[in-house]
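input
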Amino acid sequence: MNQHFTHPGLLRRLASLCYEALLLGAVLLVAAALFTPLVVWSGNARWMSVLMQLFLALVMFGYFGYCWTRGGQTLAMKPWRLQLTLADGGALRWPHAAMRFVVALVLYLGVPALAYTAWQPLFESRQHALAVALLWDTLPVLWALIDNDKQFLHDRLAGTRLRLLPPLARKR
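output
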């Protein structure tokens, strides 16, 4: 099933990511609003805070997983004509979606958090340590500049790829 893919440009993918951040922010605000009464009611803010973070991660995975397994496009990917497929062009199933989600989560959140923790003692201010740690967030994106297929690092590691869909024919 190896097909020829049109690689979307980096700017198109970054624009889609910005749009995705806005949409995901709205989804997470609604999810947090639904969960917040439980935090207040429980009286154990620390424990409920951890549960809320897990709940929000589950909501994110549910959103992405549902979209990726139902046509390979999130709401933000549709106007930019991006589609997520397996490396061979096949459709994603839930295990593939879970792999991509976990790999991206580790690369974009886990590695910078570890870098911040490790480098904080080396800098005079926390802001400098945070700035250096956040530079790690650019590495999975910059990977596309050296990747043969122009894929982000999380797609390369998860066995997925973004492809550019052809423009839709306009109705007259």
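quick obs: Helices lie at 10-42, 45-69, 94-119, 126-135, 139-146, 153-158.
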